[in-house]
Amino acid sequence: MVYMVKDSEDFNSKLEAAGDQLVVVDFFATWCGPCKVIAPKLEEFQNKYADKIVVVKVDVDECEELAAQYNIASMPTFLFIKKKEVVAQFSGANAEKLENFIQQHSG
């Protein structure tokens, strides 16, 4: 399941609930073309790696404070968080790179 967070409190509770699982955070915007392109692949990866990852989506227009906290300048930007620590990040709608990062950091 892909979670859409509504605020910082919701985001932090998702990180807490993830435990040792990798949290893949998708910072996106509803008006962002590349974000719309990558969204189905992200859902596919959530299903494929369901036992290893938690996917959290953050709308940068709805959660501006979270976007600022993580210095998000372009969309989509993916953060990979393990045990509440950012272990990697990249920007762009590159499905192959996204899957490689998931495989690399979910083990």
From TrEMBL:
Keyword Electron transport belongs to the record: yes
Disulfides per UniProt: C32-C35
Highest taxon listed in the record's lineage: Eukaryota
UniProt keyword annotation of Cell wall biogenesis/degradation present: no
Domain annotation Thioredoxin: ranges: 1-107
GO molecular function ontology, one term from the record: protein-disulfide reductase activity
UniProt keyword terms in alphabetical order: Disulfide bond, Electron transport, Redox-active center, Transport
CDD domains on file: TRX_family
Pfam family, one: Thioredoxin
Site feature (Contributes to redox potential value) residues: G33, P34
Active site per the UniProt annotation: C32, C35
Gene3D superfamilies on file: Glutaredoxin
SUPFAM superfamilies named in the record: Thioredoxin-like
Protein family membership: Belongs to the thioredoxin family.
NCBIfam families: thioredoxin (TIGR01068)
Protein name, as recorded: Thioredoxin
Organism: Anopheles culicifacies
